[in-house]
Amino acid sequence: MKRQPDVLLGNEKHDIVDMTAVSCHKIILSSKNRKKVVLVDTITDTVLSDIVLKAQPRFICMTGSQQAATTLDNNKIQFIKVNDTLLIDDSILDVDVDVFGIAPHNNNIVVSYSAPPGVQIISKIGTVIHKIDNTTAGREVFNKPRYIATTSDGSIYVTDWETNKIIRLDATLTILHTFAWPILGRPHGIFSMNRDQLLVCNKQKNNIVLIEPSKSSMTVILVKQHGVEKPCSICFCMEQKKLYVAPYNVTSSILVYKLP
User: Fold this and answer.
1) β-sheet bridge partners, residue 30
2) What are the C-alpha distances in Å from 141 to residues 13, 86, 178, 221?
3) Cα separation, 252 vs 114, whole angstroms
4) Of 125, 136, 164, 234, whose CB count within 10 A is highest?
5) What 3-state class would DSSP assign to 4?
6) pLDDT in tens, 152-182
7) Which residues contact 247 (CB under 8 A, 6 or more apart)?
8) What angle do CA 19, 34, 192 make, to 5 degrees?
9) CA–CA gap between residue 129 and residue 110 (Å, rounded)
10) pLDDT tier at 71 (50, 70, 90 boundaries)?
11) Residue 260 and residue 252: Cα distance in Å, rounded?
């Protein structure tokens, strides 16, 4: 793993909650303190476009090649059109839960929420297709479900901050497996490299881990000595094998690593 030059975010400092790749040269991120969604060119260190929102953005994902969605702290989901160099306000979806994590799932979206903590698959117009929470499950499955990653086989992975677990569900939100290693500490951002490799921000332990679910194995690939400190969000460019990491604090840059 080789450290690359950081991606600089201009004059503003951002409390980055989440980020995702738009293309191999562009990242879109949610900035909590600025109440913005920001489009960044990772080659030129240029903020191409940003949108000021009416509520604080939380987590973010691409829901199509030219559409992003971010959860807001007022029980809404903001859709955003993503052009080559421009972000444009799209529709706003009202939901009946306090939404946090978000990820695409087939032609729908999957979200994590609180009170009671759980996960829903919903359509882009807000129809609930499947849901699971501590009430419907009849037991305590989640405590603080947050970041979500989905894979090509329909699996859904959810990080739970308080229980130090990663929960795998299928396309109907049936629980398939719960991963809980002693080394996991406040797992935050999660990225699916393929159907059997996950990258996870291990915030409390100051490292990035690679999880291979089929082997029930976890390997530490980046540690504090590599510059990783309280990693919060993560995304990966498959074409260039570049890993982007944002810390759990206000920052003016994003860490970049080249995978072998």
Assistant:
1) 18, 37
2) 36, 40, 10, 29
3) 30
4) 234
5) strand
6) 889 999 999 989 999 999 999 999 999 999 8
7) 16, 229, 230, 231, 232, 255
8) 10
9) 10
10) very high
11) 26
Q: Which domains can be identified in the chain, with CATH numbers? A: 2-258 (2.120.10.30)
CB count within 10 Å of CB 254 equals 24
> In the numeric block, which tokens belong to residue 173?
């939100």
Peptide bond just before 57 cis, omega within 30 deg: no
Show Cβ contacts of residue 89 under 8 Å, excluding neighbours closer than 6 positions: 51, 78, 80, 81
β-bridge mates for residue 187, sequence order: 202
Cα separation values, 195 from 6, 159, 160, 199, 255, Å: 28, 16, 20, 12, 25
Average pLDDT taken over every residue of the chain = 95
Which pair of structure tokens corresponds to residue 190?
Answer: 């999660």
- Give the bridge partners for 6, in sequence order: none
The DSSP code sequence of 5-58 is EEEE-TT--EEEEEEEEEETTEEEEEETTTTEEEEEETTTTEEEEEEE-SS-EE
Residue written as tokens 């989640």?
142
Q: Are strands 2-8 and 207-212 parallel, antiparallel or unpaired?
A: unpaired
The answer to whether 111 touches 100, Cβ cutoff 8 Å, is: yes
What does pTM read for this prediction?
0.95
CA dihedral sign of residues 96, 100, 104, 105 = negative
Q: Please tell me the total number of residues recorded for the chain in this structure.
A: 260
Tokens of residue 214, six digits = 């089929």
Q: Which residue has the tokens 């421009």?
A: 86
225 by DSSP, 3-state: which? helix
Q: Tokens for 209, please give them.
A: 């881990």
Closest CA to 26 of 45, 13, 11: 45
